[in-house]
Amino acid sequence: MNWQDFEQEQPFAAKMLKSSIEKNRVAHAYLYEGERGTGKRSASTLVAASLFCDNLQSNFIPCGDCVNCKRIKNGNHPDIHIVEPDGLSIKIEQIRSLRTEFSKSGVESKKKLYIIIDAEKMTIPAANSLLKFLEEPNVETTAILVTEQPQRILPTILSRCQTVSFKAIPVEVFTKKLKEAGINNTKAPLLATITNHLQEALALDGDDWFAQARKIVLNLYEVQKKGALYAMTSLQDEWIHHFKEKAQIDLGLNLLLLIYKDILYIQLGKEERLVFPDWREKFAADALQTSSRRLSEQMSAILEAKRKLNANMNPHLLMEQLVLNLQGGPSCV
């Protein structure tokens, strides 16, 4: 990631961090919080490069070619330390080791920086040890805590950090990124909608299970318009055998919801936002035969099914109720 990418994907976070570097007002400790795949770790490395680069360009952009930039990119700069979970948690020994290391003078300069990945996974003793570290800040030391779940971090630690929120990457930006990574025009919009993580999107692109899931959901949408018997048959023959785990069912419901959103987008004249572009003509025909009110009811039914799934309702019964609620579909004006 470079600053141009960062500013495009996370404009508010990038503006805040770049401004603090330009004005020489870098905080003692930052908390980067946001969902998976929003670029928190990459941003940590980028900020590190801007702080340690020997040949900063205009606007405090790291050169990428100096010794420090190369070592940061390769993860072996002596004054930058990354702490990650050892197994399922970050243990007190890891924080103690970090504190010992940081009690020494910087190898290259007085500056030091440490990054704690998945900071919410610190054990209570580790968190308390870190708190003592944060309470005695060294003016040349910068801390970056990275987390997807800030609510699991001690409030006393949060109070000592400047929070930088990372939002979901705009779908159109991530769609372009996926296309540049080799994902075709048909799949990219859908993958950009269901994940913000590049590697996960690439994995799903080559996943036979996901390809089949997409096909089954689109088929359920089609057959449910023919009547309850067709829908129930599709559930028994395809859906139930494919969507077995709770997370898989939830994903299937998300895909189904996106179909109805596509039809609504067509009604609103926002066809550039379709996530099933290869079904544009079919959805356009359906959009002429249904009302926005009916689409709203159908999407609400799917959202209610997701709520019931999270409440551990029997998934078979849940899906049977859902397809009955979806009856009428685009044939109902």
From TrEMBL:
Any Gene Ontology CC annotation: DNA polymerase III complex
A GO molecular-function annotation: 3'-5' exonuclease activity
SUPFAM superfamilies attached to this UniProt entry: P-loop containing nucleoside triphosphate hydrolases (SSF52540)
Pfam families: DNA_pol3_delta2, DNApol3-delta_C
Biological process (GO), any one: DNA-templated DNA replication
Enzyme Commission (EC) number: 2.7.7.7
Catalyzed chemical reaction(s): DNA(n) + a 2'-deoxyribonucleoside 5'-triphosphate = DNA(n+1) + diphosphate
Coiled-coil portions: none
DNA polymerase III delta subunit C-terminal domain residues: 250-326
The entry's keywords: DNA replication, DNA-directed DNA polymerase, Nucleotidyltransferase, Transferase
Protein name according to UniProt: DNA polymerase III subunit delta'
Organism encoding this protein: Lederbergia citrisecunda
